[in-house]
Design goal:
about 90 residues, MYOD Basic-Helix-Loop-Helix Domain, subunit B, protein dimerization activity, Transcription factor UNE12-like, mainly alpha, nucleus, rod-shaped, HLH_DNA-bd_sf, about 0% strand
Length: about 90
């Protein structure tokens, strides 16, 4: 008795794979990734509005400027705190 290999009754139709348009993906992972990128873009725009003179489109350069500005602000807080402390101290002398 000859052995036969079972085969599918009909081969699957060969359809060309069509990619979704940009922003139209339906895969849950793709949707989650797109939402993550949108949130990051919103936060970047918010930082651009908060930090003066940041108008670069290159994100790395823009983040460098923001880091420098935050360091500057921290230094300003230390200087102002010291000045307030000195004023308070000399008021009692």
């Amino acid at each position: 008795m000859p052995t036969t290999v079972p085969t599918a009754p009909h081969p699957p139709a060969m359809r060309p794979r069509v990619r979704a348009r940009r922003g139209q993906a339906t895969d849950p992972h793709s949707i989650a990734e797109r939402l993550r990128r949108e949130r990051i873009a919103e936060r970047i725009r918010a930082l651009q509005e908060l930090v003066p003179s940041v108008n670069k489109t290159d994100r790395a350069a823009m983040l460098d400027e923001i880091v420098d500005y935050v360091k500057f602000l921290r230094l300003q807080v230390k200087v102002n705190s010291f000045e307030i402390f000195m004023d308070f101290t000399f008021d009692f002398v």
